[in-house]
Each structure stands twice: as C-alpha cells, then as structure tokens.
Amino acid sequence: MNPFQLFNKWYSEELEKSKANIPSACCLSSNGLDGYPNARFVSLKEVKDDAFIITGSLKSRKGLEIEKLSKVSLTFWWEATERQIRIQGNATKILDTEAVYYFKERTKDSKIISLISEQGASIENMDILKNSYKEAERKYTNKDIPMPKNWGGYAIQPIRMELMEFEKSRFHKRTLFQLKEEEEWIATILQP
Predict the structure, then answer these.
(1) Please, are residues 102 and 40 in contact by the beta-carbon 8 Å criterion?
(2) Total domains in the fold of the chain
(3) What is the pTM assigned to this prediction?
(4) Is residue 52 part of a domain?
(5) Per-residue pLDDT tens listing for the chain (192 residues)
(6) Has residue 136 been placed in a domain?
(7) Who's near 105: CB < 8 A, 6+ residues apart?
(8) Tell me, what CATH number does 102's domain have?
(9) Which residues constitute the domain of residue 29?
(10) In a domain? residue 124
(11) CA 118 to chain centre
C-alpha cells in the first residue's frame, strides 16, 4: 500500500468517527522569514494528484514564507482514531483556475473576510475591519464575491510521510514512507 492510499483510508475512518468541527485541520510548518520555524493550523482542501491542497492569502506570513522557501511540513492529529501523520514536502502554487474553484467553495463570510482583510497585518481598531465587512456584505448581497488577487493555494508534494497509530501498550505502529528518485515509496518500520 502506498502512503496516499493509507492516508485516504485513515482520513475516511476519522471523518466517520470524529466529532471535531474541522477534522480537516492540520498544522502547516514553514521556515520563518526571520529564520525561526513557524506553524499554524490550516484546513486541508483535498488530496489530489499525490499532493495535499491548502488555500489562503498568498501575501500572508505563510504565503511569503513559502514563496521564499518551499520546503514545508504538515502534521495531522486525529483524536477519534488516535493517529498522527507527519508530512515533509515541497509546496508549489496551484493554478488560478484551481484557486477560483476552491474560493467558490468557501462560505460567504470567509469570502468577505478574504476580500477585505490583509491577513496577519496589524490594525489599530477592529471597528475599521468590521465596517469594511458590513460594506462588502451590502455590496455583494445578491452578487458573487470576487476572489482577491492575493488569494490562492498550494499543492504540497511529499517526499516523506510518517503514519503512526497509537497503541495502549505504548508499542505504537510507526511507518515512514520515503520517496526515492524512481518515484517509488520505500516503507520503513520505526520503533515507538
């Protein structure tokens, strides 16, 4: 079994059992602009063409960090099934047509926030943003909300994937999959 088949199987099982509001939440880690590691939670949109798709502002801190150095990691913790997945790979910007598709899938509130907010930028008074939100809400009452120019996404293509199942005995099942040059995944069992 390749790691994507196992990931998809585990993800389906987590979705069936999970009571979490966002079972697709995962921690994206990147290399900070100041040299320190940086991490934040994002929502996995889908696994497509052997890549993990995430979206957001391209001008946010994460977007700028990925632009500078595309080596990132994703970490999933699934409480319902007691599984952890760690992924290391390279992020590439998705096509604009794909970004438009994912933007259309967002809720109206999320679209408006993406349109009016400079994610991560400082602001002196939140009322300014709230007023901008109300204006946009009125403006787009019966209209499609346009995707901002600075909005898009990334396809993270793994070079390493570690899948771990927790066991009460503490003999956790850990398997490391590493991509070799021949596009072949090599699996190694790791000690708990």
Answers:
(1) no
(2) 1
(3) 0.92
(4) yes
(5) 789 999 999 999 999 998 888 879 999 999 999 999 999 999 999 999 999 999 999 999 999 999 999 999 999 999 999 999 999 999 999 999 999 999 999 999 999 999 999 988 899 999 999 999 999 999 999 999 999 999 999 999 999 999 999 999 999 999 999 999 778 999 999 999
(6) no
(7) 45
(8) 2.30.110.10
(9) 3-106+148-190
(10) no
(11) 19
